[in-house]
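To illustrate the input format used throughout this study, we show a single complete record. The first block contains the structure-token representation of the backbone; no residue identities are included at this stage. The design step must infer an amino acid for every position from geometry alone.
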């Protein structure tokens, strides 16, 4: 390993890479960018909660945004200028203190504002709010020429704005962003859960929940009989306060990485059976327990052992629900049990060419590395997604073949043209970008 280079991996821990990690101020980043040498380029990174190789840049520089922590909230309007290195968890805490909340939050709070914009993330509210870019009013981006420019969703800078949203760090470093927070009067969620015996019932329940609830999600059992039974979780922000709740959450940490994966067909089946039969929640729930349930166990990715795991998340338009049943039966055939299956409905798409969500359904599945025939089966799914107007989520990806990208993201050529204007020297690089021909 060259001196000063250090190893890193995404949340799935299945791909290792070594790069020069720089924890710099903006001025230091500007200077390094102008003098950047070598062809392995540079990449901004946040908390590396992307699963595969989106935040890796083997042999190049990784610019950590952890020093970008400033924020300034207008307590009247709920507009906040926030540094790209601030996490969603921190943002929630700042906002809640003043009676606001971000309308879109992901399943974990350990995601930076930069990472949230660069992947145009979605939350349980997508059917009502759309993705993260819908609350971004402007952002400052450090270009590869060392200049910081302010970008807006409309007007002369809009093409650069929308190429940076979901642009996977390949257009520049988001330095900070102005976000519109939502005013809230309560400090907890009113929730309801419902148990569904198979996938048809689950799909119907999710559809009907969407009109009444601002936040919906389903956990699906992808083991045992693979019937797609599951539990739908629904919630609305409460309109009153209860000091017993708020952002409170308990957390335990998994201190070591196990040699072998603890996730086996038997443990997956037992966990899913337990989860399906657990008592259903109803009534008041603290914000974190509802929005970020997985954060209750720190470093849970270590249970997959040294080989790690992959997440496969796809979207599929309305009218193609039969594909979800195909996925169940093909996974059953290869005994490809997924520890965690999460199903959600998507509302309107954003204007960003590489943004993932589009109207319909999304399913996320976690698999330990090493399931026989899994890769071939996922490639079959990829092919079918291309034909049906579906796609996979880049920030979860570690394995997609480059030929599929333009079929899934039909505006990727448009994105590349704008990217070439923003970064004529082609300095922004990632392992995923190289694999998929994005940089
Ligand atoms: C447990 C868990 C639950 C999750 N739940 C959801 C969910 O519900 N919805 C969802 O949409 N996603 C979800 N994710 C994925 C996560 O939101 C994204 O991977 C997010 O991009 C991670 O942010 P990060 O700060 O860790 O960025 P990183 O993983 O470090 O980087 C991700 C990408 O963003 C780019 N990037 C990071 N910072 C900047 C910056 N300042 N400027 C420009 N580019 C930048 C990187 O180059 C890279 O391409 C989940 C992840 C985990 C681990």
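Output of the design step:
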């Amino acid at each position: 390993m060259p001196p000063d280079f250090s190893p890193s991996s995404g949340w799935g821990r299945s791909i290792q890479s070594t790069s020069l990690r720089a924890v710099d101020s903006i001025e230091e980043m500007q200077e390094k960018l102008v003098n950047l040498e070598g062809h392995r380029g540079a990449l901004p990174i946040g908390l590396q909660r992307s699963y595969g190789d989106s935040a890796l840049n083997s042999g190049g520089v990784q610019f950590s945004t952890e020093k970008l922590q400033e924020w300034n909230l207008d307590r009247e309007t709920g507009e906040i200028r926030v540094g790209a290195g601030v996490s969603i968890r921190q943002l929630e805490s700042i906002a809640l203190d003043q009676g606001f909340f971000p309308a879109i939050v992901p399943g974990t709070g350990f995601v930076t504002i930069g990472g949230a914009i660069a992947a145009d993330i979605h939350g349980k509210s997508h059917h009502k709010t759309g993705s993260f870019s819908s609350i971004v009013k402007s952002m400052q981006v450090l270009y590869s020429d060392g200049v910081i420019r302010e970008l807006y969703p409309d007007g002369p800078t809009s093409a650069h704005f929308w190429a940076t949203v979901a642009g996977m760090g390949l257009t520049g470093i988001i330095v900070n962003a102005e976000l519109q927070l939502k005013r809230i009067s309560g400090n907890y969620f009113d929730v309801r859960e419902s148990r569904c015996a198979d996938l048809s019932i689950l799909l119907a329940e999710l559809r009907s929940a969407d009109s009444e609830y601002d936040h919906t999600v389903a956990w699906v059992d992808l083991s045992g009989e693979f019937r797609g039974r599951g539990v739908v979780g629904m919630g609305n922000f409460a309109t009153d306060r209860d000091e017993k709740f708020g952002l409170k959450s308990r957390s335990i940490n998994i201190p070591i990485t196990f040699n072998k994966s603890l996730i086996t067909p038997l443990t997956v089946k037992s966990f899913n059976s337990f989860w399906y039969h657990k008592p259903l929640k109803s009534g008041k729930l603290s914000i974190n327990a509802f929005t970020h349930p997985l954060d209750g166990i720190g470093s849970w990715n270590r249970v997959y052992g040294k080989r790690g795991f992959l997440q496969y998340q796809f979207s599929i338009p309305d009218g193609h629900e039969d594909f979800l049943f195909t996925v169940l039966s093909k996974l059953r055939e290869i005994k490809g049990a997924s520890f965690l299956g999460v199903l959600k409905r998507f509302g309107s798409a954003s204007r960003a060419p590489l943004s993932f969500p589009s109207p319909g359904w999304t399913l996320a599945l976690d698999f330990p590395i090493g399931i026989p025939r899994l890769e071939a089966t996922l490639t079959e799914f990829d092919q079918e997604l291309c034909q049906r107007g579906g796609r996979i989520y880049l920030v979860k990806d570690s394995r997609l073949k480059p030929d599929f990208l333009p079929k899934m993201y039909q505006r990727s050529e448009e994105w590349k043209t704008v990217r070439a204007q923003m970064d004529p020297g082609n300095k922004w690089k990632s392992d995923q970008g190289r694999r998929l021909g994005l940089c």
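Structural context for interpreting the output: The radius of gyration is 21 Å. The chain has 13 helices and 21 strands.
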